[in-house]
Every structure is written in C-alpha cells, then in structure tokens.
Backbone:
C-alpha cells in the first residue's frame, strides 16, 4: 500500500483544490496568470490579512527606523511577490528547462564549479528570499549535481507531487528529518547540497544576530563545512525584472572558520552567511518571506535553550 493510498478525505480535497487552481492558472496567458496571482496575493495580505500580524511584527523588528507607511508597502509587496512566484513555479514545471534557463542569469557559477572540482562537493546555504525553488531548479538544469534538503509536507499528496516535479527538473531531495548521512554521501559523491538556513530552530540552535536580534539558527551548514572541508556558498535567486520575469542566481563564497574553538568557529561562520543574507534582504525586502516567525524564541540569559515570546506559536 502506497502512502498516497492512505490519505484522508481532507487532504484529498485540499490537493484537488490545488490541482484545479494550478491547472487553471497554467492555462491562462502568462501575463494574465501573474496579474491574477498578484491580485490574490494583495487580497490575502490586505483584506484577509493572512498572517499579517506576523509580517508586520517582523518588519518592525527588522526595520525599526523606517516609517510605518514604508513597512506597509513592503508587507503588501511581499504577499504579491509570494503569489506571483508561486505561479512562476507552476509554469516552470510546464515549460521545461530551456525556457526557464532563458530567463536566468548566473553570477559566480564558474566559481562554484571550480570549487566543486576539488571533489568535496559544495554546501549552498540559502534563505527565503526571491524564488529559492526556481533557483534550485535552475542550478540543477545548468548541470550542477544538486541535492536539496527539504521538510516532508504534511499532506502526502503534496509531498509526492513536489518530489516528483523536483526530480523531473534534475533536483534530488533529501528529507530534513534524516538528512545527515544522505548529505555526507552526496558530498562524497561530489554533489552540491542546498539548505535553507534562515528559519527558527529548537534543537542545538546557535544564537546568532539577524537584523540585530539574536536568532535561533541551525548549526548544520557551518558544522558540515568545517568537518568535511566542502566549500560554503550563499546561493540566492532574485527576481530582477517584473516583465517578462527574469532572475539572477548568485553564488557568494563564504569563509569557514577552523580553529581550536569549535563553538566559536560555528558562530563566526554562521554569522557570516546570516550577515550576507541580511545584506541581500535589505536590497530586496519585498522578496523576503516575512510570514515566518523567525524570532519566536528569546535568547537564553543563562545558557539555556531560550523560550518562545508570550503569544507566539510554533509557526
């Protein structure tokens, strides 16, 4: 019995609605599909106000010196961006590799390939900025052997769909729940491994500043780079033109500290890529995923694990 055969009615209805909407948007002319998506994004953020309090709180924390009007514009833009890029992904899977690569420019790709020629693979840290899914697909379609670490979707039908579509674009998926051995194996095979590294974590977190606030951050990328010798890069896919959609996928090499103080090294390396990501977010604030509770925990004062601020949940 397959996993999908045990899916409940609610999950099937949810997936059916997704397929109906996605196929409808795929049938529309591209410009119309993006206009419809942008309108839906605006409606979700400005009328329904889905997670709007989270977005507003995050923007106030990240940009305290900016005016409320400026932050409101960025908030609205983030919803529109998220909706449009979701449509871009749906259409990416329909048009194929050639059409996607025509809209992507790479910066630093040769540097990445040269670094990978040493036989240790590469670790690509990225964040929820621009279109991280499209960027990963573009890298794989450009010929870089790439594995992406991802969480299992709660809806098994969504999980199967995403795994299949990523595979069709040349991207291998490693489940985050049991990622260590597959990552090490991929690096030994000379592959690149991509990890989203800007979300709150609980177990084994490093407390590293992000937009001026100590943030519970995964130590995984820094620890992997230090122990395997794999080169570390920040990889981002930024939308650089509104119409027709165009993207720049950038690879920025990052230093990996290696001294006698492991914890200090991990903190320094992690801080380097969070600072680099922050610099990019400041340039393109509307393209960041402000909808996640990045600062759901407060930094520990006594060496503990930290706590969630009052009223903040797990998302």
Residues:
């Amino acid at each position: 019995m397959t996993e999908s055969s045990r899916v409940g009615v609610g999950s099937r209805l949810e997936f059916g609605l997704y397929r109906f909407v996605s196929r409808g948007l795929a049938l529309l002319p591209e410009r119309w599909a993006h206009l419809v998506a942008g309108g839906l994004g605006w409606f979700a953020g400005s009328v329904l106000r889905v997670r709007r309090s989270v977005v507003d709180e995050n923007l106030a924390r990240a940009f305290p010196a900016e005016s409320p009007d400026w932050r409101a514009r960025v908030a609205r833009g983030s919803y529109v961006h998220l909706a449009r890029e979701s449509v871009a992904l749906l259409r990416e899977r329909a048009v194929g590799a050639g059409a996607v690569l025509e809209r992507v420019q790479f910066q630093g790709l040769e540097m990445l390939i040269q670094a990978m020629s040493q036989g240790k693979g590469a670790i690509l840290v990225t964040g929820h900025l621009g279109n991280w899914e499209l960027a990963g697909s573009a890298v794989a379609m450009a010929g870089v052997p790439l594995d992406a670490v991802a969480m299992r979707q709660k809806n098994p039908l969504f999980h199967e769909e995403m795994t299949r579509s990523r595979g069709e674009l040349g991207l291998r998926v490693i489940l985050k729940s049991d990622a260590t051995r597959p990552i090490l194996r991929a690096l030994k095979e000379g592959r690149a491994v991509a990890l989203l590294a800007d979300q709150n974590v609980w177990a084994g977190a490093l407390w590293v500043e992000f937009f001026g606030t100590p943030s519970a951050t995964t130590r995984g990328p820094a620890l992997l780079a230090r122990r395997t010798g794999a080169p570390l890069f920040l990889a981002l896919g930024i939308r650089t033109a509104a119409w027709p959609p165009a993207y720049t996928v950038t690879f920025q090499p990052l230093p990996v500290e290696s001294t006698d103080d492991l914890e200090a090294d991990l903190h320094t390396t992690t801080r380097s890529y969070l600072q680099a990501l922050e610099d990019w977010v400041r340039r393109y604030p509307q393209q960041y995923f402000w909808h996640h509770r990045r600062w759901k925990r407060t930094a520990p004062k006594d060496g503990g694990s930290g706590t969630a601020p009052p009223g903040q949940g797990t998302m």
Summary: Residues 303-315 have pLDDT under 50 and may be disordered.
